[in-house]
Specification:
406 residues; alpha/beta; Helicase, Ruva Protein, domain 3; Rossmann fold; Arc Repressor Mutant, subunit A; 3 domains; 49% helix; 13% strand
């Protein structure tokens, strides 16, 4: 039976506080991330004393707690009295250019300064003047690899420390991609003076404790059994140890229980929620990939959908594509969109990134198939993958046709 508006407005029989299940919620206690939090604290500690510190780059797959840990430390810093550090947290998916990031920093810390009508150089000079008064800025750049002119941003922020004596900048960069720095200019790299912190995926036992902690705050007593929690934790561990995935399954399972007008979450609710969430998370991930990775994935989806126009191998119901063919299809796509077609060296890095995200799998063929050719398999339905990329790349439901290009 469909729920009415009155049903939806009633007090939930399952949830006590839905907010604690949100990926944007920062808990008071971050289990199994004490060491990582301590390393972030060590990185920003010099800034709290008014000293220039080392930059920190934080890496890890989605759902490993990178952003939560950085925000946790930021909240710690903000609660300290008489600290000499100024803090800015910036989501680079929203503020995706040097100019917008500078504007955001100045708006936060110099609210009386109107940024309208000024260029990036003007904003830079204003920021330097403010820092020269003895201030240290700690700027956390979440999804830093999404900044379009990243080279210019990194070079500018590192240059401040060599230009002024009385203050400075400490960067905390957060990224899903360990290799993103390889695209930086050697001048920017040499000036970074950074340390690195890699977040490993969670194990099933760790995810279980995270879920148990959130359930104690977010659900009514007795709404979820221990068996259901362990099932969700195991499902998330199979998806790469993603805590965000586990919380989405947990929340969705609660919603399914509500739809049944039940006060308890069943194993069937959890099973259905895991299936729905897996598809949602994968296609959300695809839509947020950097454009070069999207183009490689788009080439794969087009070729996997094609009716034999490209050479491919069949193993039961699975389709494997030759890496070299995919590269030439990717080049054709990039050129048709007036984008720079990267070299095969970069293409191989993109493939490695897609494999790390669990979207493709690759392996070397045996003898007799073009020598030792690399084969690629798309791990999610090609038609759905293509539909997501059509919307993301072209803003349409149908972008490039599946057939080969001349």
């Amino acid at each position: 039976m469909a729920q009415t508006l009155n049903d939806l407005l009633k007090e939930s029989a399952v949830f006590a506080n839905r907010e604690v299940l949100s990926p944007h919620y920062t808990p008071q206690r971050l289990v199994y991330r004490e060491k990582e939090i301590n390393k972030i604290e060590n990185a920003v500690a010099p800034a709290l004393k008014g000293e220039k510190g080392r930059n920190l780059f934080v890496y890890g797959k989605t759902g490993t707690g990178k952003t939560s840990c950085v925000k946790y430390v930021i909240n710690e810093v903000k609660s300290l009295p008489n600290t000499k550090a100024q803090i800015s947290y910036i989501n680079c998916r929203i503020y995706s250019s040097r100019f917008r990031i500078l504007g955001r920093i100045i708006t936060e810390h110099l609210p009386t300064f109107a940024t309208r009508g000024y260029g990036a150089a003007d904003l830079y000079e204003r920021l330097v003047g403010w820092l020269e008064e003895g201030r240290i800025l700690v700027v956390a750049l979440d999804e830093i690899d999404m900044v379009k002119d990243l080279d210019d941003l990194v070079y500018m922020l590192t240059r401040i420390n060599s230009e002024i004596k009385g203050g400075g900048v400490t960067m905390v960069g957060i990224s899903n991609r360990v290799s993103f720095k390889e695209s930086l200019d050697p001048r920017s790299l040499s000036a970074l003076y950074e340390t690195e912190l890699v977040f490993s995926p969670y194990y099933a036992t760790e995810l279980y404790e995270i879920l148990k902690d959130r359930v104690s705050l977010g659900f009514k007593a007795g709404a979820i059994s221990d068996d259901v929690l362990r099932f969700i934790a195991a499902a998330a561990a199979r998806e790469g140890g993603d805590a965000r995935f586990s919380l989405k399954v947990l929340s969705k399972a609660g919603e399914l229980a509500e739809e049944r007008a039940s006060s308890t979450v069943s194993m069937d609710d959890a099973t259905s929620a895991a299936k729905v969430t897996e598809e949602d998370v994968v296609y959300e991930l695809i839509s947020t990939l950097p454009e070069p990775l999207k183009l490689v994935l788009y080439a794969l989806s087009l070729m996997a959908n094609s009716g034999g126009s490209y050479k491919k191998l069949m193993d039961g119901t699975d389709t494997y594509l030759f890496s070299g063919d995919v590269y030439y299809r990717y080049k054709s796509l990039a050129e048709s969109m007036h984008r720079e077609a990267k070299s095969e060296r970069w293409y191989k890095k993109y493939l490695a990134e897609l494999e790390m995200q669990g979207l493709v799998t690759t392996f070397e063929s045996g003898k007799g198939i073009r020598g030792h050719a690399k084969l690629i398999k798309l791990l999610y339905p090609a038609d759905k993958t293509k539909a997501v990329l059509d919307a993301s790349l072209f803003g349409t439901e149908g972008g490039v046709q599946s057939g080969p290009t001349a």
